[in-house]
Fold this sequence. Notes:
single chain; mainly beta; Jelly Rolls; five-stranded antiparallel sheet; 2 helices
Amino acid sequence: MPRLILILIMALVLCGCRNEIPQEKILFDFETEQDLDRVHWKCHALFSLSEEHATHGSRCLRLELYPSPYPGVTPMVREKDWSEFRSLCFDIYNPQERETEIAVRIDDQKNWPDYPDRYNKSFRLLKGSNRIVIPLNTLVTSGTGRKMNLKSIQRFLLFMVNPPEKNVLYVDYISLVR
């Protein structure tokens, strides 16, 4: 009888191991043409799928950002509840010979909030591969320092601020990590 109980306990433990919670949620991986349908186009920015510099899967998003106030892209966020995750991560490849900067904007309101009431941060991109990791507990608004509502993320934008010349960047593997 004790042997049967031990076997039952081991079976329960092993069954529990199969129901692991995924450690990441991929938001955008840019593998298909349908992925491009989820990216809002803006003037002074061109984008396409590319096999160059993909870090996850076989393709990534190639961006051409031209001189203008805020060229960039706005991928459509389907996963609005980020509260179960610790970090937002993505890869950017900078093929230019020079360093550059990319800005990230995250909104937790349906309307398009003004600068002081949204998350805004710039990241320096070195030549070559860059991995951007944003701890979600650091998402606060630029003006008041209000903590963002991680259960209501509405928008995620990648853009440049007044680039003086054309920039090409490759973006891939935008994910939430536990």
